[in-house]
Structure to design on (355 residues):
């Protein structure tokens, strides 16, 4: 086994046979990403792209709890307090990494075992071969902390069947492996206990069909629970305003729809309105890169808004789960304020170009 010089304590980068392997290694922090980890991740992919000895890249997480719960939110919040620019650099470089994964010239197999949220989706759901397990718990919960489903989330969710992506984005709901495959966020289901065996098979994959190897380990994930709710989801979330979505739920006579509406109403009013607009806009965009460019415009503004600080306080710091959003109601979030999130950033534009 050859260990890359890019290895950090928090990101284990090495080559095993024909596989380049990246393990996110912050289990005590649910493998949350830091800027240094993003940079090491990027360097590893760049080096292996032209290394003839590497046939496949395998991404997984250390510990037993999951692949990655997202970016290090506390560090990003502290960066905002210091106004040192680190958070903006993190998002910019993270999005470039997401794009690199999406356009990588070699197969990337991502093990989406356990918790996969936010930035964890960004380093896995754009891979060419995405593996879930019976332990997978996937979510894009950003509207609950005053942000939007970024890291290419608008690209992925806007292309889910029907309005399933809209539902996942506006509620931040957690889903299992079968639903992840149904939503187009994953490809294959493999029992968690077989992942180490699969990884070993991939290390010996020189000249082999990587997807065929993964398929040989795959099994039936069972029915996708949300597939049974498809009709109700499409009716409720098939509107272009959040107000219409909630009104449809309230008048539906469906207890599930009413409960779902309450979940949306608990989120940042600004976030849910901007997120819905971003999802609708993403349907007309042609590439992951285009969506990331728009997401960066939005995140650069949301990061400095009160709802991000308040959302992190309520969910991560004080954990009282009682955020005080500004503004507190949907009616106070104007169309003009939503549109302002999408305005160009001038010299600060992300400027990704589709591969």
């Amino acid at each position: 086994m050859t260990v890359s010089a890019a290895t950090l304590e928090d990101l284990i980068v090495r080559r095993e046979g024909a596989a380049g392997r990246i393990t996110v290694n912050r289990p005590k922090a649910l493998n949350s990403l830091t800027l240094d980890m993003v940079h090491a991740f990027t360097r590893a992919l760049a080096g292996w792209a032209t290394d003839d000895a590497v046939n496949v890249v395998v991404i997984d997480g250390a510990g037993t709890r999951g692949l990655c719960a997202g970016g290090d939110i506390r560090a990003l919040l502290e960066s905002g307090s210091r106004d040192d620019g680190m958070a903006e650099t993190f998002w910019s470089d993270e999005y470039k990494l997401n794009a690199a994964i999406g356009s990588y010239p070699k197969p990337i197999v991502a093990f989406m075992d356990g918790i996969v949220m936010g930035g964890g989706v960004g380093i896995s759901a754009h891979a060419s071969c995405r593996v879930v397990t019976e332990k997978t718990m996937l979510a894009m919960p950003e509207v609950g902390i005053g942000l939007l489903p970024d890291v290419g989330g608008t690209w992925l969710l806007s292309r889910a069947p029907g309005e399933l992506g809209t539902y996942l984005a506006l509620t931040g709901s957690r889903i299992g492996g079968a639903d992840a495959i149904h939503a187009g966020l994953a490809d294959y289901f493999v029992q968690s206990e077989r992942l180490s065996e699969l990884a070993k098979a991939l290390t010996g994959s020189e000249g082999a069909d990587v997807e065929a190897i993964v398929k040989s380990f795959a099994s039936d994930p069972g029915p996708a629970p949300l597939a049974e709710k498809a009709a109700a989801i499409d009716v409720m979330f098939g509107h272009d305003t959040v107000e219409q979505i909630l009104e449809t739920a309230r008048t539906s006579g469906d207890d599930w729809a009413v409960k779902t509406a309450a979940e949306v109403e608990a989120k940042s009013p600004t976030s849910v309105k901007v997120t819905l607009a971003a999802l609708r806009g993403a349907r007309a965009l042609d590439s992951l890169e285009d969506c990331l460019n728009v997401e960066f415009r939005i995140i650069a503004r949301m990061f400095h808004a009160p709802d991000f600080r308040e959302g992190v306080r309520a969910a991560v710091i004080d954990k009282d789960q009682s955020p005080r959003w500004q503004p507190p109601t949907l009616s106070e979030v104007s169309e003009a304020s939503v549109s302002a999130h999408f305005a160009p950033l001038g010299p600060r534009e992300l400027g990704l170009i589709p591969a």
Observations:
- The beta strands are 2-3, 11-16, 19-24, 56-61, 66-68, 108-112, 115-117, 129-132, 137-139, 188-189.
- The longest strand covers residues 11-16.
- The chain has a mean pLDDT of 96.
- Residues 86-102 form the longest helix (17 residues).
